[in-house]
Amino acid sequence: MSHLFPNYQRKEFELVKGSANRLTDQKGKNYLDFTSGIGVMNLGYNDPELNQVLSDQANLLWHTPNLYENHLQEQTAELLANGKDYVSYFCNSGAEANEAAIKLARKATGKSQIITFTNSFHGRTYGAMSATGQASIHAGFDPLVPDFIYVPFNEIEPLKAVINHQTAAVMLELIQGEGGVVPAKESWVQEVQALCHEFGVLLIIDEIQTGIGRTGSFYAYEQYQIEPDIFTLAKGLGNGIPVGAMIGKAELAGHFSPGSHGSTFGGNKLAMCVAAKVVERINQPVFLQAVQAKGEQLFTGLLKIVEKNTKIKAVRGKGLMIGIEVEDPHTLNYLVDQLQIAGLLTLKAGQTVLRLLPPLTITEEEINQGLLILEKVLNSEAS
Ligand SMILES: Cc1ncc(COP(=O)(O)O)c(C=O)c1O
């Protein structure tokens, strides 16, 4: 018997090694990776420079508690602020980053109501799950944290109907990831921000899947001409080392006074040395321009493949975060399995969306290889 809880639906193979944008399973089968370990391995696998900083730090000191200064946290926080007046709190995962954001928003405003959106995903801990606008994720876990309200994504009137001076925060993903790779409309996001300003409400952007270069800018919010009060990161920040961050405007700093929040492992030295290097490497104009170009190459290639395929309903996304909407869950499962057999690892988002999140280091040639496999499988008779 397995001594694990069966809370994950696992495929019957194990990935045992990786290099750059490719993985190998226990039987020696090789895969081109269009998953990045669910948006985590933005710099690919077994990166020599990241291996080096991690092993240097491992040979020096693994962990110190947050009772002492930590220059690696200071360095990473400065890099994440990206020249603006933002301050960081470090934790170990996306859900924890969102917990911190929810707690800060309530403490800073003295209000409790938080508005989030239908089909959003913010994590599995109680606060983050309560923020998540999906009944299937709440099922069996009542009572949830009170005072979360869910309104339709990309629609302004339902938000106007509920936002008021008692609202602490509005929280959203700029591309709903788990919800099906659904980008927010730029004009809508700006209206949301304007409403937040009108009612003195904090705007929280969940960049856990969209941040760290994934959409072609270092943060996705940069493409929306907004300035979040709070935003959250995890996934790609540590390129596989567990780390999350909650980043807020400096004027909110005083509300997280000593003793108000914390984490034993948060900002751990191993995580911080890698995170600082990841941010340094990805937040470079040349690197981000390449992500945009590769995103366009993949998107255009997909449009060509699906233009005559009546079974594909839509292709959408930004940068290297792309979703292909198919007719039904059965087709989606079939496609993911067939792509894997053909040597391409892909993801699902929701019930009907095939999600592509290749490492940002994917090459032009590898994108063409992936497109060839996708063409064969998407246009095969059975799909
Ligand atoms: C947008 C978003 N927020 C939060 C989370 C939760 O992150 P974690 O699984 O690290 O807790 C995820 C994970 O998929 C996510 O995509």
How is this structure best described in words?
The protein is 36% helix and 19% strand. The strands form 4 sheets. It has a 7-stranded mixed sheet with strand order 4-12-11-10-7-5-6, sandwiched between helices. It has 383 residues and is an alpha/beta fold. It folds into 2 domains: 15-47 and 284-378, Aspartate Aminotransferase, domain 1; 48-282, Aspartate Aminotransferase, domain 2. The model has no long low-confidence stretch (mean pLDDT 97). The protein is globular and about 60 Å long. It is built from 12 helices and 17 strands.
How do the helices and strands line up, and which of them pair or pack?
Layout: E1 15-19, E2 22-25, E3 30-33, H1 36-39, H2 48-60, H3 71-81, E4 86-91, H4 94-109, E5 113-117, H5 126-131, H6 135-138, E6 148-151, H7 157-162, E7 167-172, E8 175-176, E9 182-183, H8 186-199, E10 202-206, E11 230-233, E12 244-249, H9 269-282, H10 285-306, E13 314-318, E14 321-325, H11 329-341, E15 344-345, E16 347-349, E17 353-356, H12 364-378
Parallel strand pairs: 3-15, 5-6, 5-7, 7-10, 10-11
Antiparallel strand pairs: 1-2, 2-3, 4-12, 8-9, 11-12, 13-14, 14-17, 16-17
Bound molecules: pyridoxal-5'-phosphate (PLP).
